[in-house]
Specification:
The chain is an alpha/beta fold and 187 residues long. Helices cover 44% and strands 12% of the residues. The chain has one domain: Rossmann fold. Strands 3-2-1-4-5 form a five-stranded parallel beta sheet. Helix 2 links the parallel strand 1 and strand 2.
Length: 187
């Protein structure tokens, strides 16, 4: 009988933890909505900052450290306690068949995976993980591609990101970086 009670007590303290992987180039309101939604299902979320080795390109202009800073400040701005999340930079691996093991090596244990990426879904399913597709929030507007396009074109991008992300982008001179990266090489 004691074993049964101990087992039930153990089940009561199991933390439900979810994994979300994204490039976050930059962090925008859609990311925050997805994170808030995931936190309705789990106790904690691991936010994997994907393609952490990439920066200073039009598609990936911000460093992993800058993206971690954006996430930390945006989550704080939105009242999400630091005890509810972990932010882990995750570099790409050139061999898809070992990528899940690579992610698991870098992260705390998790019970659920949240991703809209079909390749990531397949890789985690093949590894026996519970995979969920999070709802996307106004994807035509809330996408890193759209935010970066607006930055480059001098259009309103600030309404698509948290105020704290605007401040980080100002601090690192992110708009000028994107403009410089968009220039063609002169021979």
């Amino acid at each position: 009988m004691k074993f049964f009670k101990d087992f039930i007590a153990l089940l009561m303290v199991i933390i439900m933890r979810g994994l979300l992987v994204g490039r976050m180039q930059p962090v925008h309101e859609g990311h925050l909505q997805v994170i808030k939604r995931i936190l309705e299902d789990v106790d904690e979320v691991i936010i994997g900052v994907g393609s952490a080795q990439l920066s200073h390109t039009i598609k990936d202009p911000f460093t992993a450290g800058e993206r971690v800073m954006m996430l930390t400040k945006a989550l704080t701005e939105n009242g999400i306690s630091a005890s509810k999340y972990y932010i882990i930079p995750i570099q790409d691996v050139a061999c898809n068949s070992i990528w899940v093991a690579h992610v698991k090596m870098l992260t705390p244990p998790f019970n659920h995976v949240y991703t809209g990426n079909p390749l990531v879904q397949r890789l985690f399913k093949e590894d026996g993980n519970d995979v969920n597709i999070p709802p996307l929030y106004n994807r035509e507007v809330y996408s890193g591609t759209e935010v970066r396009r607006r930055m480059l074109e001098g259009e309103d991008w600030k309404s698509l990101v948290p105020d704290s992300v605007v401040e980080v982008i100002k601090e690192i001179d992110g708009i000028q970086r994107i403009k410089d990266l968009s220039k063609r090489e002169v021979i």
